[in-house]
Amino acid sequence: MLAADAALNRDAGAGPVAAPDIIAVVKANAYGHGAVGVARALEEAGAQMLAVADIEEGIELRDAGITLPILVFGALSVSEVDGLFTHGLTPTISSPGAGRALEQAARARGTTLSYHLKVDTGLNRLGFRHDNLGRTLQALLASPVLSLEAVYTHFSSADEPDVASVEAQRRAFDTACAHLVACGAAPVRRHAANSAALLRDSRLWFDAVRPGLLLYGMAPGALHTAMDLRPAMTLTSRVVAVKGVRTGEAVGYGGRFAAERPTTLAVIPAGYADGLDRRLEGRGAVLIRGRRAPIVGAVSMDMLTADVTEISDVSPGDEVVLLGSQGGAAWQQIDAREMAAAIGTIPYEIVCRLGSRIARVTETAIDDETID
Ligand SMILES: *Cc1c(COP(=O)(O)O)cnc(C)c1O
To answer: CA angle, 30 as apex, 95 and 291 as ends, to 5°?
Structure first.
């Protein structure tokens, strides 16, 4: 377990840390929560910028009337850069080639374009290598039509107890930022921290932080925090049928679950097409009438079955909670961390995968809670 409160990790003697700007990450349909609804809530709550993975995600938000600045993290393909100009999105430039393509596009339109520069400090994915900037950045920084607004990096292991790599990346980023100034760039804003880095050390906050998972009420990895986190998502369905099976009868595709006693099953219209993993068979549970009902038999495309033998009076129409709570006790809650642990993945994957046919309903607006 990691101590995860930045306030606890401040250098002894260092003064209070200025609150960084929030670049709220709403990529992948806001981690499955519904990008437009989440973006509206974040805009209202005071986020300074939103971030998405690609131009199409940015366009969806603009079309819905979102006016906050929007950063696009991903690599750009030449065919789609139009959207940056037509929808006022801020690109990431992470290679000299992308710089040249955007320079050309901006010139062709007779306009200038602000961008964030991505420096790779050890994740070894996108970004200019931090140790080679002198050679790769000159043309980009010299462009009269491209305007450097911020520089950023991304950590590989901020949610693991491996402090060494985080520290190495932090130092490489510091050096790269100093190098930028030496290359003639005006001092620019800097950002680096995803949720895990944000929680672990205030020295990683720089001028802005980029939380994703944390915004949705979950702490990443093994991090624990004193923050009052509540999962933003509740996933519910209803029992559509109740079925009795005799001892020895098999249930579902493959017949892998055979009833060892007279068994009552609730049929629930939610399956892997909705993002519920097939590995939940025999491992996961749902909540019905405030009780846990184990998922038995195959999770099929559109349906799953839960054993409700122990729960009296289950009827069609009863609420089923797949993620969320049904009562105040700890065992009456199922969150994405629990579901992820049951099938050997991470909570990110659980929420991001939720299918498009599930209606996203905004239950309550963010009231007096602001994200500062
Ligand atoms: C997804 C992403 C984040 C947010 O990560 P979380 O772990 O969800 O906080 C931040 N920065 C970049 C570049 C990302 O791709």
So the answer is: 140
What are 320's two structure tokens?
Answer: 């089923």
Task: Give the number of other CB atoms < 10 A from CB of residue 186.
Answer: 9
Give tens-digit pLDDT for 183-227. 878 889 999 999 999 999 999 999 999 999 999 999 998 777 888
Band of the pLDDT at 106, cuts 50, 70, 90?
very high
Verify whether residue 31 is a known catalytic residue.
Answer: no
pLDDT at 362: 85
- Which of 26, 205, 210, 349, when mutated, tests ligand 1's pocket best, judged by the most ligand atoms within 8 Å of its CB? 210
Q: How far apart are CA 195 and CA 344, in angstroms?
A: 21
Q: Write the residue with the smallest CA distance to atom 8 of ligand 1.
A: 212
Whole-angstrom distance, CA of residue 330 vs CA of residue 23: 32
Residue 360 phi, psi (nearest 5): -95, 120
CB 275 within 8 A of CB 236: no
Other C-beta atoms closer than 10 Å to the C-beta of 308 total 26
Q: Which of 122, 131, 133, 71 is nearest to 96 (CA)?
A: 133
Cα(97) to centroid of ligand 1, in Å? Answer: 24
Pocket of ligand 1, beta carbon within 6 A: 25, 27, 73, 154, 194-196, 210-214, 220
Ligand 1 nearest atom to the CA of residue 213, by list position: 8
3-state secondary structure 6-40: HHHHCCCCCCCCCCCEEEEECHHHHHCCCHHHHHH
Domains (ranges, CATH) in the chain?
Answer: 2-225 (3.20.20.10), 235-352 (2.40.37.10)
pLDDT confidence tier of residue 17, bands split at 50, 70 and 90:
low
For residue 257, give the H/E element and its range: strand 257-258
Q: Locate tokens 């100093």: which residue? A: 178
Q: Span 100-123, mean pLDDT?
A: 96
Rounded to an integer, what distance in angstroms lies between the CA atom of residue 112 and that of residue 140? 13
For the cut 60, the answer to whether the pLDDT of residue 347 exceeds it is: yes
Stated pTM of the model:
0.91
What pLDDT sits at residue 80?
80
Q: Mapping DSSP to helix (H, G, I), strand (E, B) and coil, where does residue 284 land?
A: coil
